[in-house]
Write the structure tokens for this entry.
Amino acid sequence: MSPPPGPRLLTAAVTAVTVLLCVRYDWWPSPYGTLPRPDPLLCAAAALVLLAGVLTQWAIRALYVVGRDRRWSWWVAPIPAVVVAATVLTVILPPPGNDDPHTSYTSTSG
């Protein structure tokens, strides 16, 4: 019997999707002291590589469990659900633009 996709793959998928959402909506933690902010492009690239690896391994394990072993495991469902939920979130809630009143890129002094 083949092992189903488990909590490790789910954790990696949630981590990659969270990083991609942080890049999309510009939700970065404030830098501590003089440490520079991480580069969003490099973080997004690393998250995409991680997500591609996770989805490939998920597909292989899911096909073995469902196709070859002819059984069902609930560990097959959460990873696509996380990816679909993040995709729906990015479609429904676009990132704030320059004309959004809650973000200000101009100086108010003067």
